[in-house]
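Project outcomes to date are best conveyed with an example. Our students and postdoctoral researchers have been running inverse folding experiments weekly, and each run begins with a structure described purely in tokens. The record below, which covers 291 residues, was selected by the lab manager from last quarter's runs and is presented without edits.
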């Protein structure tokens, strides 16, 4: 049974008072129901989305105010630095005095012949280790690649491996301890399952590179001798290649530079820079056949 409401009849004043009280309560209930259904549009919400209005108690408001006061009292030095402050603290590392001294010996407006550039490069040496000699080329387009057999060692030891069952077991385990992989055609069906693993590393044998051969032993001698494979960066028309050590004789370095440039093709080259690991770069002359 629901609630029993008692109404006194016969007394107009009391009856009117009861009716007014009933109307007041009914109005309050309607207002409360409307408040529950009120939805407001919030900036950033997608179409059709609404955020329902909620009541926050006085106690919750007091707690939020206290939390705000505590945060405001924390010293600025203990707060996490803003993103802009972090950006300001980033400093570009400046070159040392030895590098600056070496750079003064290079004429930035001059294009040097290979011979003169190598003579100068030897004078620029200031590091206490045997630096690598590097070529940096700006070419016409990306996607260029090839190989070059340098007359003299680049100073980098090339690890050449020949495919056999034992090596396949290592590859199966994800172990790669070689720079060039040579295979006999008979092993290609077994090697095919590792194409997705070896391909991205540039180690999958292929006929164009000369790494699939009926005489693997001869291919090993070829690549161990100093054959290097080069290609441009994936997203920029740039080629970077080590062609020797600073301790290598100048005539041998010159022969390696000339051979590498011949491999890339003078028609594909816009600019060439020669440098060692620690030295400033020297621009080579491209108008005289890079001689």
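After processing, the design step wrote out the following sequence:
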């Amino acid at each position: 049974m629901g609630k029993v409401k008692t109404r006194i009849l016969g007394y107009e004043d009391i009856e009117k008072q009861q009716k007014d009280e009933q109307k007041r309560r009914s109005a309050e209930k309607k207002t409360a129901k409307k408040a529950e259904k009120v939805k407001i549009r919030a900036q950033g919400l997608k179409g059709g989305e609404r955020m329902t209005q909620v009541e926050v108690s006085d106690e919750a408001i007091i707690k939020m105010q206290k939390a705000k006061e505590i945060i405001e009292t924390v010293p600025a030095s203990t707060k996490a630095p803003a993103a802009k402050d972090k950006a300001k603290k980033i400093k570009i590392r400046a070159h040392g005095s030895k590098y600056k001294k070496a750079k003064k010996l290079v004429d930035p407006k001059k294009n040097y012949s290979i011979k003169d550039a190598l003579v100068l490069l030897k004078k620029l040496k200031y590091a206490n280790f045997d630096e690598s000699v590097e070529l940096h080329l700006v070419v016409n387009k990306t996607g260029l690649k090839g190989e070059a057999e340098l007359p003299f060692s680049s100073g980098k030891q090339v690890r050449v491996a020949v495919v056999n069952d034992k090596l396949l077991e290592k590859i199966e385990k994800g172990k790669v301890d070689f720079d060039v992989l040579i295979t006999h055609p008979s092993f290609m069906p077994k090697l095919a399952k590792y194409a997705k693993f070896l391909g991205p590393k540039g180690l999958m044998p292929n006929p164009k590179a000369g790494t699939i051969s009926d005489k693997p032993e001869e291919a090993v001698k070829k690549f161990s001798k100093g054959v290097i494979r080069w290609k441009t960066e994936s997203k920029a028309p740039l080629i970077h290649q080590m062609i020797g050590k600073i301790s290598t004789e100048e005539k041998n370095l010159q022969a390696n530079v000339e051979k590498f440039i011949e491999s890339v093709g003078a028609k594909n080259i816009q600019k060439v820079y020669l440098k060692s690991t620690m030295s400033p770069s020297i621009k080579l002359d491209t108008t005289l056949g890079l001689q």
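Strands lie at 39-40, 51-52, 132-139, 145-149, 160-162, 180-182, 227-231, 238-245, 269-276, 282-283. The CA atoms of residues 12 and 18 lie 10 Å apart. The training component of this project remains on track.
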